[in-house]
Amino acid sequence: MKVPQIIPHKIYDPNSLQHQVRRWRFFGKTIAFTNGCFDILHAGHIASLSDAAREADYLVVGLNSDGSTCKLKGPGRPVNSQHDRATVLAALLMVDAVIFFDEDTPLELIKMVEPDVLVKGGDYTIDQIVGAKEVMAAGGRVVINPIVPGLSTTGLIEKITKL
């Protein structure tokens, strides 16, 4: 189905996301949550988001704001603005909602969404994942998906700068 008009409607502010989450829950749907900077989208991101989407009926993506990304990744990042990154994520079929967060971690956003499944990609342990304790205390679960070796935004940037 090609409906590009819905892309901007998948980018939420906190109030509209809370309303949408209540709506999904009213219909008995489950919600997965993942987060990241998603600065230059690559196949590793697609694999991670696809895995996350398989965990529930709907996938909410917490997107680090420009300020949060710069603090996390350093000067010169993000390469793409938060608006552009959100638009690209919202265009993906497996993503149902995108919401920005400006804090260092998405903890407040996770508390607001109260996902059934918290999904993180990488080499983490559950005790290292922000929000894991809260999600499990509410009866949810935490899933750690493996990263795709050799694929990273930092690696892509390094490759591009060497050209």
If you had to describe this structure to a student in words, what would you say it looks like?
The chain has 163 residues and is of the alpha/beta class. It has helices at 14-26, 43-53, 66-73, 82-90, 107-113, 132-137, 153-162; strands at 11-12, 31-36, 58-64, 97-101, 117-121, 141-145. Strands 1-4-3-2-5-6 form a 6-stranded parallel beta sheet, with helices on both faces. Helix 6 links the parallel strand 5 and strand 6. The chain is globular, with a radius of gyration of 15 Å. The model has no long low-confidence stretch (mean pLDDT 92).
Relevant terms:
single chain; 163 residues; alpha/beta; 18% strand
What layout of secondary structure does this protein have?
Layout lengths: L10 E2 L1 H13 L4 E6 L6 H11 L4 E7 L1 H8 L8 H9 L6 E5 L5 H7 L3 E5 L10 H6 L3 E5 L7 H10 L1
Parallel strand pairs: 1-4, 2-3, 2-5, 3-4, 5-6
Summarize the structure.
With about 160 residues, the protein is of the alpha/beta class. It has seven helices and six strands; from the N terminus they run E-H-E-H-E-H-H-E-H-E-H-E-H.
Give me the oligomer status.
single chain
Query: H/E series, N to C?
Result: EHEHEHHEHEHEH
Question: Reading side by side through the largest sheet, how are the strands ordered?
Answer: 1-4-3-2-5-6
Structural class: alpha/beta
Outline the biggest β-sheet: 6 strands, parallel
- Rounded to an integer in angstroms, the radius of gyration calculated over CA atoms is 15 Å
What helical percentage do the residues reach? 25-40%
Measure the end-to-end span.
38 Å
The dominant shape is globular
Strand content: 15-25%
Number of helical stretches of at least 4 residues: 7
- Poorly predicted regions: none
